[in-house]
């Protein structure tokens, strides 16, 4: 057994871990980075990037099939999807992104990167597989997350898949049953549907793409239901049939049915990778899911020399959050005990469906919780439907709804939720306004060009402005 001594050990070599390693090394050279699987990050290998590549291919087919209303007619039978070519592009571009990450990793001293699964022996000692033990002064946990799998699905063998499997396909399958109508289920489910794969999405509690505003949720549900079958409040049973296919027997309200598919794609949420870390060997405060609780401004846990970052922290499992948290945790581990608060930005979330979904600042559900019985008195809500929004109609993307929230008394912009056109861009405008702590009247003083989809945002802002206390 190799024994090492370190100032800082970072567990997990994804986005958060790489950021932590880089930033800890600004303060000390004696830092180790431990990775149990492969370098390259979840985002680049099996997350953000390959999913957006698949979506881009799906959009190309969708646009080709929907030119008629513009008076532009294509022979629909000539629009063919070559599954192998789709997957080749997804994988080759993905490999390019992964390559850039690996270039960074390979620049780091090989002796400072250790492959193997790390586990706490005590709150200063990390065991890596059975080959290395490191005594560390400070430790950063950046072990990411993994998809949740229901135990009853295990009998499906290799017909049960997760996002990682989709991005290693050599061609597209004929049919997929998607479980989970959250962000991943909706992005991948719609993309596969638009590529001609027979898809049905099964949800459980009526939620969709993480939307918490009931009005936006209702509108979004209607829009997505027009496009492909989904059952958002279903119960179901999955089994392998005699042909070796996945058979889903489902029920929702008075409706029942059977959907037979090549695969069951599990997208019912992700769980932080903290359960196999030996946390039982250290006395660390955890939440009810067993995740170490950390101060979001310092990423410090209840054990002062242990920090946590990225999806492992269960705070906001998004790429830019992992990068920010990794930087903060690494820097603080590097300069411990002189830790400081890092930059925390306004919340921004985008789902790359069509229409896109976004949320900024405080979501509807957060405000409801925060204001409780005072919600109606204290929070003003403005809204816009994109059905008749000028530029959206021009482009034939006039589907969706946005609601913006403001503090009635001060006029301060609090947050927004939306499903609709150009949501990724509107989300940025709003997140910047939120972080600048702007009031709605100040936001309305900003320029709006004509004709643009952002004029829809102005309509919602005018609506909320009219409801502020005078
Ligand atoms: C399909 C999909 C699409 C997504 N799309 C987006 C998007 O569009 N935009 C967005 O913002 N976010 C998106 N995300 C979320 C984003 O990918 C994650 O929030 C982000 O990658 C998390 O980074 P991380 O560093 O915490 O984890 P990871 O990158 O997963 O890194 C964790 C690392 O820790 C290693 N590890 C685990 N346990 C141990 C151990 N015991 N010892 C040593 N190493 C260990 C793992 O092997 C892994 O390499 C998506 C996620 C998925 C799955
Ligand atoms: N565009 C993006 O930024 C992006 C894209 C993909 C993933 N992500 C990140 O990854 C995280 C995980 O995504 P996810 O989609 O796996 O989780 P999620 O939490 O977004 O959605 C899970 C969904 O599964 C449903 N569900 C739970 N149990 C179920 C069951 N037994 N049967 C059917 N449905 C069930 C839930 O009601 C929920 O709607 C997201 O929260 C997000 O932070 C982000």
TrEMBL record:
<feature type="domain" description="FAD/NAD(P)-binding">
    <location>
        <begin position="7"/>
        <end position="326"/>
    </location>
</feature>
<feature type="active site" description="Proton acceptor">
    <location>
        <position position="450"/>
    </location>
</feature>
<dbReference type="Pfam" id="PF02852">
    <property type="entry name" value="Pyr_redox_dim"/>
</dbReference>
<protein>
    <recommendedName>
        <fullName>Dihydrolipoyl dehydrogenase</fullName>
    </recommendedName>
</protein>
<feature type="domain" description="Pyridine nucleotide-disulphide oxidoreductase dimerisation">
    <location>
        <begin position="349"/>
        <end position="460"/>
    </location>
</feature>
<feature type="binding site">
    <location>
        <position position="269"/>
    </location>
    <ligand>
        <name>NAD(+)</name>
    </ligand>
</feature>
<keyword id="KW-0520">NAD</keyword>
<dbReference type="Pfam" id="PF07992">
    <property type="entry name" value="Pyr_redox_2"/>
</dbReference>
<comment type="similarity">
    <text>Belongs to the class-I pyridine nucleotide-disulfide oxidoreductase family.</text>
</comment>
<dbReference type="InterPro" id="IPR036188">
    <property type="entry name" value="FAD/NAD-bd_sf"/>
</dbReference>
<feature type="binding site">
    <location>
        <begin position="180"/>
        <end position="187"/>
    </location>
    <ligand>
        <name>NAD(+)</name>
    </ligand>
</feature>
<dbReference type="InterPro" id="IPR004099">
    <property type="entry name" value="Pyr_nucl-diS_OxRdtase_dimer"/>
</dbReference>
<feature type="binding site">
    <location>
        <position position="311"/>
    </location>
    <ligand>
        <name>FAD</name>
    </ligand>
</feature>
<dbReference type="GO" id="GO:0003955">
    <property type="term" value="F:NAD(P)H dehydrogenase (quinone) activity"/>
</dbReference>
<dbReference type="InterPro" id="IPR016156">
    <property type="entry name" value="FAD/NAD-linked_Rdtase_dimer_sf"/>
</dbReference>
<dbReference type="InterPro" id="IPR001100">
    <property type="entry name" value="Pyr_nuc-diS_OxRdtase"/>
</dbReference>
<keyword id="KW-0285">Flavoprotein</keyword>
<feature type="disulfide bond" description="Redox-active">
    <location>
        <begin position="43"/>
        <end position="48"/>
    </location>
</feature>
<keyword id="KW-0274">FAD</keyword>
<feature type="binding site">
    <location>
        <begin position="143"/>
        <end position="145"/>
    </location>
    <ligand>
        <name>FAD</name>
    </ligand>
</feature>
<dbReference type="GO" id="GO:0050660">
    <property type="term" value="F:flavin adenine dinucleotide binding"/>
</dbReference>
<dbReference type="InterPro" id="IPR036324">
    <property type="entry name" value="Mn/Fe_SOD_N_sf"/>
</dbReference>
<keyword id="KW-0547">Nucleotide-binding</keyword>
<feature type="binding site">
    <location>
        <position position="52"/>
    </location>
    <ligand>
        <name>FAD</name>
    </ligand>
</feature>
<dbReference type="InterPro" id="IPR023753">
    <property type="entry name" value="FAD/NAD-binding_dom"/>
</dbReference>
